[in-house]
Amino acid sequence: MNTNNILWHDHHITKEDRSFIKQQRPCILWFTGLSGSGKSTIANALENKLYEMGKHTYLLDGDNVRHALNKDLGFSDSDRVENIRRIGEVSKLFADAGLIVISAFISPFQSDRQIVRNLVNQNEFIEVFIDAPIEICEQRDPKGLYQKARCGEIKNFTGIDSPYEAPMNPDIHIKTDVMSVDESVQLIIDTLINQGYLNG
Ligand code: ADP
């Protein structure tokens, strides 16, 4: 193929430019926690609040990603690693677009969360531990998954027959057995304000 006539386009618009017009600093709020701990509930409430504040966000959630981008992946250890790797790369692209990205995934392995942290600048990854005792998660069982796992209908279920490695030093720790959804959202918003993410 003759490549003489193919011009290389320099991308002059940077992440900083894209963030500046949005009057915010991009970041990935990485929610990790057991099924039923409250990731989706708090992520949705947080995105609503940020939208009301005029901030530009994108919410990546376990179920919507597993139905589309990662529909070829299951729940074996190796598929879970690949699931998080792809989500990390997508989160990185959205952050590069200047967005505040909320990524809500069980993401049970410490090493996978570290890989995503290493993909972006140090101040762009905020680990949010959505924490509730497994007994409470199992009582809530919003999707009936614990019941299915206990009956053996679902294999490799985190917290039952697949491990969950809790963050050792999360940037934000939310205990949903003692904090309301509104209090949880406010804690995250306060952290974002204090650390300058919501200013241009
Ligand atoms: P996950 O996304 O972590 O699997 P979900 O958000 O889907 O969890 O489900 C959590 C369930 O717990 C919901 O039914 C929610 O209404 C309930 N819940 C009760 N208290 C809280 C709380 N303080 N924070 C978040 N969710 C809560």
Total helical segments: 8
Mean pLDDT: 94
In the CATH scheme, what's the topology name?
Answer: Rossmann fold
Distance between the termini: 45 Å
Gross morphology: globular
What is the number of domains? Answer: 1
Number of DSSP E strands:
5
Fourth CATH level, the homologous superfamily? P-loop containing nucleotide triphosphate hydrolases
Question: What topology emerges from the helices and strands here?
Answer:
Elements: H1 15-20, E1 27-32, H2 39-52, E2 57-61, H3 62-66, H4 77-96, E3 100-104, H5 110-119, E4 125-131, H6 134-140, H7 145-150, E5 172-175, H8 181-194
Parallel strand pairs: 1-3, 1-4, 2-3, 4-5
This protein binds adenosine-5'-diphosphate.
Description:
- It is a single chain.
- With 200 residues, the protein is an alpha/beta fold.
- It has one domain: P-loop containing nucleotide triphosphate hydrolases (Rossmann fold).
- It has eight helices and five strands, in the order H-E-H-E-H-H-E-H-E-H-H-E-H.
- The chain has helices at 15-20, 39-52, 62-66, 77-96, 110-119, 134-140, 145-150, 181-194, and strands at 27-32, 57-61, 100-104, 125-131, 172-175.
- Strands 2-3-1-4-5 form a five-stranded parallel sheet, sandwiched between helices.
- The protein starts with 14 loop residues before the first helix and ends in a 6-residue tail after the last helix.
- Residues 33, 35-42, 130, 140, 142, 176, 179-181, 184 line the site of adenosine-5'-diphosphate (ADP).
Name the descriptors.
5 strands; alpha/beta; binds adenosine-5'-diphosphate; Rossmann fold; 200 residues
